[in-house]
């Protein structure tokens, strides 16, 4: 068998740490495999080198032995029939995984080659000259497009003046949002002073300030297009280098766009990613320009967002030219990383038919040290090229300026390299969401499981979505939630506790809910750790719910196959308890979220009843690469990872009662014990 590098995210896996030649029979049956020694369950069987060699020799001749041949092999090699059968099953599975992996690598290389060729052709078009006059053809010329945008900006200013003179009592009266009346301000910034948008409250926006915002958006759009070019000189070839090389490139980049210098103590992160998205260009633009839909798609990253002001709704019945002020929070699923509060303007523009740009940028007045939890959004966004087949080619660029001292040392490399909130995570999250929409719309949901209606499958998907959202919020505590952080004496390092008091809220247990979370570093890669935690054969090694028994899967809904995104209804064998679970593993990270659910409630949901009243308390794991030594950029096959464990538990049915400190310490002990069991099972130092 191969080592850890050959592990599959959802298939049968060898126990990490086992050397080659010391192989293990894996149990494919989720309820366990009984050998011939009195029916007692055994998880592993070690074989001698002679047995392994004989099995390999027979496999070369016949990978599918008959029952009689398996019996003869077992007699000859002193092995049980089930041992021989399991060995051949695992061998075939491993060979299939390896073949699929090689095919996937080949296809990715071919895909990257085609993308490079396409980018070369596009660059050649940008530099092409007319054969007759020798002048530039302006085929896709970004400068030409920006000039058109500037002309439209001037037209918009004239329309604003006409609107004010026609409908407002005074031409200098300020415009405010149609959705929210901003408080009056005694300050009167000049035309050249771009207002700083306060996250805690809105500012009034005059017609001149609107024009300033539009000019800023057009400048940011021009910058984004330049950064999206294949041969853009501002991107480093080696993403591992971070100190001297980054500062030189940063200064060169900033001087090119005549921007202000970042203040001391601030860190700038920048990343770029490109990929195919199974969504049309127009649909994607509409999603991005609707904050409700935007939050729904990017829920693991954006827990809350709102459109503070709509400065322009676009022209010609499309979103082209739309300009908005948005307030949002960005999150990394860990108690060690504070939420990133951002206020920015978002502008979208159709450059040509089928080519759109959506750009974000934070307007600021002067370079100042950002307060705790806040950051500046440098020109970031998407260049979207419609491929006319239901897919879009997306180039995603993320840039941010923030104070690194607010972030725990464990997560500084992850954030600084543009991984935690970088372009690759945004793009992978979008791809997973779009693929799940495509899968669920094309799958015959009535064929998923006997007794499960199509409406029931839809409700289970909705219930799993609510479960994962509650799991995120129990760790990061968005500003709109009721979680309150509590201080506990002599608490373990990197452990966080919050409480929420529920009183007759739909879908919530009444009483005091305690949320505990912690993040630790483990010397194992993301795929290996995810495979261990998500595989039912190893569940009893860390999950207290199983109590040394097994779990079996009763329902499986595959949302996004390429991302390993699966929703399952699990059943604990010895007591019949049902557990709802959702998992995925991709470039955005890995997630395993689960919650026990009441049997009668879930049976109603399976028949199509509304799932909003189902009550649960989620727990789970979030896994990301540690960002050290370039492990993330090598595809998570090396280096370590950061594991976040979150747990919610009802500690009292009276929401007005005081929290007992001893209960908190018991939960802390349970969390620490689970982490120790995971380390022990993976043969890691505790």
Automatic annotation (TrEMBL):
Superkingdom field: Eukaryota
Gene3D superfamilies: Homeodomain-like
Encoding gene, per UniProt annotation: FWA
Spans annotated as Disordered: 1-24, 173-202
Domain START: 206-439
Cellular compartments annotated: Nucleus
Keyword annotations from UniProtKB, A to Z: Coiled coil, DNA-binding, Homeobox, Nucleus, Transcription, Transcription regulation
Database matches in PROSITE patterns: HOMEOBOX_2, START
GO cellular component: nucleus
UniProt biased composition (Polar residues): 175-191
Any Pfam family hit: Homeodomain
Molecular-function GO terms, alphabetical: DNA binding; lipid binding
Cited InterPro entries: HD, HD-Zip_IV, HD-Zip_IV_C, Homeodomain-like_sf, START_lipid-bd_dom
Organism: Arabidopsis thaliana (Mouse-ear cress)
DNA-binding region: 40-99
Name of this chain's protein: Homeodomain-containing transcription factor FWA
SMART domains: HOX, START
Coiled-coil ranges per UniProt: 139-166
Domain Homeobox: 38-98
């Amino acid at each position: 068998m191969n080592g850890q590098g050959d592990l599959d995210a959802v298939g049968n896996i060898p126990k990490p740490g086992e050397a080659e030649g010391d192989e293990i029979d894996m149990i494919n049956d989720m309820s366990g495999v009984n050998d011939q020694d009195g029916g007692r369950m055994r998880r592993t069987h070690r074989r001698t080198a002679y047995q392994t060699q004989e099995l390999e020799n027979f496999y070369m001749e016949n990978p599918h032995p008959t029952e009689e041949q398996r019996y003869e092999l077992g007699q000859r090699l002193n092995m049980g029939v089930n041992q021989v059968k399991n060995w051949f099953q695992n061998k075939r599975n491993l060979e299939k995984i390896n073949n699929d992996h090689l095919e996937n690598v080949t296809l990715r290389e071919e895909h990257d080659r085609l993308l490079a060729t396409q980018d070369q052709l596009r660059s050649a078009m940008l530099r092409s000259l007319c054969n007759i006059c020798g002048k530039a053809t302006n085929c896709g010329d970004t400068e030409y497009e920006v000039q058109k945008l500037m002309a439209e900006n001037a037209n918009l200013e004239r329309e604003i003046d006409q609107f004010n003179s026609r409908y407002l009592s005074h031409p200098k009266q300020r415009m405010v949002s149609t959705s929210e009346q901003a408080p009056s301000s005694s300050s009167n910034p000049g035309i050249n002073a771009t207002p700083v948008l306060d996250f805690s409250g809105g500012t009034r926006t005059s017609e001149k300030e609107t024009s300033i915002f539009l000019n800023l958006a057009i400048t940011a759009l021009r910058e984004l297009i330049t950064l999206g070019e294949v041969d853009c000189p501002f991107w480093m070839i080696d993403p591992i280098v971070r100190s001297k090389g980054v500062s030189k490139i940063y200064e060169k980049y900033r001087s090119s766009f005549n921007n202000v210098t970042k203040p001391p103590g601030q860190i700038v992160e920048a990343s770029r990613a490109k990929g195919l998205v199974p969504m049309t260009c127009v649909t994607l633009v509409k999603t991005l320009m609707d904050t409700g839909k935007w939050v729904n798609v990017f829920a693991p990253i954006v827990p809350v967002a709102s459109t503070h002001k709509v400065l322009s709704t676009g022209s010609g019945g499309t979103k082209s030219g739309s300009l908005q002020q948005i307030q949002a929070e960005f999150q990394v699923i860990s108690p060690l990383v504070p939420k990133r509060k951002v206020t920015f303007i978002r502008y979208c523009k159709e450059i040509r038919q089928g080519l759109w740009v959506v750009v974000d940028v934070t307007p600021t007045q002067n370079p100042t040290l950002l307060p705790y939890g806040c950051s500046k959004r440098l020109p970031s966004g998407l260049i979207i090229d419609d491929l006319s087949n239901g897919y879009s080619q997306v180039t995603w660029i993320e840039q941010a300026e923030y104070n690194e001292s607010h972030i725990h040392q464990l997560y500084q490399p992850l954030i600084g390299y543009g991984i935690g909130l970088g372009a690759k995570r945004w793009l992978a999250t979008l791809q997973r969401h779009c693929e799940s929409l495509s899968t669920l719309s094309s799958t015959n949901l009535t064929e998923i499981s006997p007794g499960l209606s199509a409406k029931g499958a839809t409700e289970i998907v909705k219930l799993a979505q609510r479960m994962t959202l509650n799991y995120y919020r129990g760790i990061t505590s968005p500003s709109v939630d009721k979680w309150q952080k509590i201080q506990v004496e002599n608490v373990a390092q990197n452990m966080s506790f919050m409480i929420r008091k529920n009183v007759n809220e739909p879908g919530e247990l009444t009483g005091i809910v305690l949320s505990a979370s912690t993040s630790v570093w483990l010397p194992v890669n993301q795929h290996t750790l995810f495979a261990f935690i998500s595989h039912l054969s190893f569940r009893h090694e860390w999950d207290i719910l199983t109590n040394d028994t097994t779990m079996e899967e009763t329902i499986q809904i595959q949302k996004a196959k390429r991302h390993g995104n699966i929703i399952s209804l699990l059943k604990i064998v010895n007591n019949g308890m049902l557990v709802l679970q959702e998992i995925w593993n991709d470039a955005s990270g890995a997630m395993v979220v689960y919650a026990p659910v009441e049997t009668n409630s879930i049976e109603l949901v399976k028949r199509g009843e509304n799932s909003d009243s189902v009550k649960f308390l989620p727990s789970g794991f979030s896994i990301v690469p540690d960002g050290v030594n370039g492990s993330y950029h090598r595809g998570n096959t090396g280096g370590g990872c950061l594991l976040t464990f979150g747990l919610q538990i009802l500690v009292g049915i009276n929401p007005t009662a005081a929290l007992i400190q001893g209960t908190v310490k018991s939960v802390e002990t349970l969390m620490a014990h689970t982490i120790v069991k995971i380390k022990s099972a993976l043969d890691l130092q505790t």
